[in-house]
Design a protein that fits this description.
Order of helices and strands: HEHEHEEH
Strand order of the largest sheet: 2-1-3-4
Largest sheet: 4 strands, mixed
Distance between the termini: 25 Å
Shape: globular
Number of helices: 4
Structural class: alpha+beta
Strand content: 15-25%
Helix content: 25-40%
Number of strands: 4
């Protein structure tokens, strides 16, 4: 893994199919995080454990394993987690 990849936080958005809030969160995350972001989109319905864990709390954004926000993007918290503005 390159140094840049190691220094770049891992972002995961847990989603459900046909979820308009999920699409809105993904767009906002991509806009804030930029093209260099390591972003994974994970459909919880494909994994019974994730479906149980997150239930109706979709979408969920995690940065390096920490939940940053649920349902709606918290742009300020995401920017802080990514170190923007330092």
């Amino acid at each position: 893994m390159s140094r840049q990849a190691a220094d770049t936080p891992e972002l995961i958005i847990y989603t459900r199919r046909d979820c308009s809030l999920c699409g809105q969160m993904e767009s906002g995350v991509r806009r804030i995080a930029g093209p260099e972001a390591r972003l994974a989109i994970v459909a919880v319905d494909d994994d019974p454990e994730l479906a149980r864990r997150f239930g109706p709390d979709i979408p969920v954004l995690c940065v390096d394993g920490e939940v940053i926000c649920r349902h709606f993007l918290d742009a300020e918290r995401l920017a802080a987690a990514l170190g923007h503005g330092r």
